[in-house]
């Protein structure tokens, strides 16, 4: 049995509508508790990863993250293969709304071929660990010329019992205005799909472009683990 059977049971049309409208959507019960625990255990298994980043060193925040290497663990490939085609119609509608001459391919394999053609050969899914005092500064995960405008993060442990603080923060900036913050603390096993860089919002004179960033507020106690699923590959 697949670890992500739960994905099929969701109403993806509603999820798609929500992402189109708000720029994000939370999908609950994607990973069962065992799978989350196994992924956390795997944090110590150096054979799974291509690169470890101590976030303080780059002033990205405080915490550690590790990029998985190809071939990805099955759970991650399954999530990518399942979710990508659900997001392509939204991504293409966004590009159309914003009059951008970009069409994303229906298949992830074709997106990866485009990445290869641009020198982006390396896997981007990652696992992140933050202890007390840990945080992730607001950013966008673009790894080269080819990028898909949405990504996902899976919450591997629970806000409350496992850690406090460490909220997932998104900011949304519309032209000529200050940023709006959206703060979430999704439960263990859930998946948040969100905008990587920008999306359209309909105004009086057509669509305008809003820029989004994401990060994590300071963890006050405990340890917080997440897994990031990005669809495009990276140059380094
Ligand atoms: O730890 C988090 O919730 C944020 C992770 C993140 O920045 C990402 O997956 O791109
Ligand atoms: Fe990120």
From TrEMBL:
<dbReference type="GO" id="GO:0016491">
    <property type="term" value="F:oxidoreductase activity"/>
</dbReference>
<dbReference type="Pfam" id="PF09859">
    <property type="entry name" value="Oxygenase-NA"/>
</dbReference>
<protein>
    <submittedName>
        <fullName>Prolyl 4-hydroxylase subunit alpha</fullName>
    </submittedName>
</protein>
<keyword id="KW-0408">Iron</keyword>
<dbReference type="InterPro" id="IPR005123">
    <property type="entry name" value="Oxoglu/Fe-dep_dioxygenase_dom"/>
</dbReference>
<feature type="domain" description="Fe2OG dioxygenase">
    <location>
        <begin position="121"/>
        <end position="234"/>
    </location>
</feature>
<keyword id="KW-0560">Oxidoreductase</keyword>
<dbReference type="GO" id="GO:0046872">
    <property type="term" value="F:metal ion binding"/>
</dbReference>
<comment type="similarity">
    <text>Belongs to the iron/ascorbate-dependent oxidoreductase family.</text>
</comment>
<dbReference type="InterPro" id="IPR018655">
    <property type="entry name" value="DUF2086"/>
</dbReference>
<keyword id="KW-0479">Metal-binding</keyword>
């Amino acid at each position: 049995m697949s670890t992500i059977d739960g994905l099929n049971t969701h109403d993806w049309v509603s999820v798609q509508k929500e992402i189109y409208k708000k720029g994000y959507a939370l999908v609950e019960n994607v990973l069962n508790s065992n799978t989350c625990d196994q992924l956390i255990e795997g944090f110590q298994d150096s054979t799974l990863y291509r690169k470890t980043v101590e976030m303080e060193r780059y002033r990205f925040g405080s915490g550690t993250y590790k990029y998985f290497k190809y071939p990805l663990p099955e759970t991650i490939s399954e999530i990518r293969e399942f979710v990508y085609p659900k997001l392509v119609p939204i991504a293409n509608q966004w590009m159309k709304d914003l009059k951008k001459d970009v069409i994303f391919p229906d298949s992830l394999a074709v997106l990866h071929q485009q990445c290869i053609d641009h020198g982006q050969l390396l896997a981007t899914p990652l696992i992140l660990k933050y202890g007390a005092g840990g945080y992730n500064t607001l950013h966008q995960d673009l790894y080269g010329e080819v990028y898909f405008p949405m990504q996902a993060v899976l919450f591997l442990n629970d806000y409350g019992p496992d850690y406090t603080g460490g909220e997932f923060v998104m900011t949304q900036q519309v032209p000529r205005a200050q940023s709006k913050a959206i703060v979430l603390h999704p439960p263990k096993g859930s998946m948040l799909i969100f905008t990587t860089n920008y999306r359209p919002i309909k105004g009086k004179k057509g669509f305008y472009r809003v820029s989004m960033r994401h990060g994590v507020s300071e963890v006050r106690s405990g340890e917080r683990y997440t897994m990031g699923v990005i669809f495009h590959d990276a140059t380094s």
